What we know:
Elements: H1 5-13, E1 16-28, H2 58-70, E2 80-94, H3 97-102, H4 116-127, E3 132-134
Amino acid sequence: MIHDPDLMDPLDALPKETLDGDVFRGTRQSLDPLVSSYSGGRWMRRDGAGVLYASLAREGALAEISFHWGQLTPRPTKPVMVHMLRVAAHRTLKLVRADLESLGVPDSAYGGVNMPRTQEIGAAVEFLGCDGLIAPCARWS
């Protein structure tokens, strides 16, 4: 895949940092919390590299799974588990809302699902050799 240079250059210029700490992930009770998403999402295309979605805040993980389960009919009734996972990443790109705006992600649309532009950003971050992406939670401030 060829990546948009108008996207690659600004992403490459952003500082990369180390992330060494705990994150939270909400899953179905029977799901292994270390298995990455395979069906696409905010930061990955359906056919892209797997993404392990997690949150720096327990409430963020709960808000995300609640939103996604709310999209399903019927809504799942099985218990949710919130897992605390230890993460060590050495080349993590951190985006703030202002970065998202400048990369073509309007704040007013950020709460949507499967946005092509955020998926392009995720693919570009992976192409740049980053082992993590920290981005604002779309469901929890």
